[in-house]
Amino acid sequence: MIKVLVKGFFFGIGFSIAVAICGFIGFKYFENQNVSGKDYTVSDLRKWNKLSPEEQMNTASAIALISYSAGENSKQVASISKLYKQSSNIQVHYDEGDLYPKADITLEENMTVPEGAIVLFMGSPANGVSTSFIYNNRIRSLGDISVTEYLAEYEKKHNK
Asked: Do residues 64 and 82 make contact, with C-beta atoms less than 8 angstroms apart?
């Protein structure tokens, strides 16, 4: 009876180790796979999210200034009012005036409509990785800086 118990115990330990190893290998494999067919990986997004607002600005391949207009059913429709690129070689699949549905908002009760948003893009072709809303002409999530200052700083650093 004890022999069967000991065999079961060692089998359980071996099985647990095998599952842990397979899980670790699977995690490492998928960590470096593209995100939904994009040009960046999960680990790239983790690195991006650890960057400070200034480092994100320096790293962003493009920035879109988003404006909102009223849509149907309490929806605010996003469109690109201005597009800034790190260089003319950066490919962005959007142009000024295009709708940008990823930044659309459905308003809920007592929700303040943002004046706009800033979308930071990564890579080329550029993919949107971060959206920050504008209230009172300021972007709080990017260091509580005014929109004008932020965009001027981006242009100064990338369009020398």
From this structure: yes
* pLDDT one-digit tens code per residue, 93-149: 999 999 999 999 998 888 888 999 999 998 888 888 889 999 999 998 888 889 999
- Backbone angles phi and psi of 43, in degrees to 5: -65, -30
pLDDT of 34 reads: 44
The full DSSP string for 5-67 is HHHHHHHHHHHHHHHHHHHHHHHHHHHTSBSTT-SSBHHHHHHHHHS-HHHHHHH-SEEEEEE
Q: Which residues contact 97 (CB under 8 A, 6 or more apart)?
A: 79, 80, 81
Burial 85-101 (b: 16+ CB within 10 A, else e): bbeeebebebeeeeebe
Decide if 126 contacts 91 (C-beta within 8 A): yes
Report which of 147, 98, 132, 137 is spatially closest to residue 115, judged by C-alpha positions: 137
Q: How would residue 25 be classed by pLDDT, with cut points 50, 70 and 90?
A: low
Q: Name the β-bridge partners of 138.
A: 135, 146
Per DSSP bridges, beta strands 138-139 and 127-134 are unpaired
pLDDT value at residue 18: 74
Which of 149, 142, 123, 132 has the alpha carbon at shortest distance from 62? Answer: 123
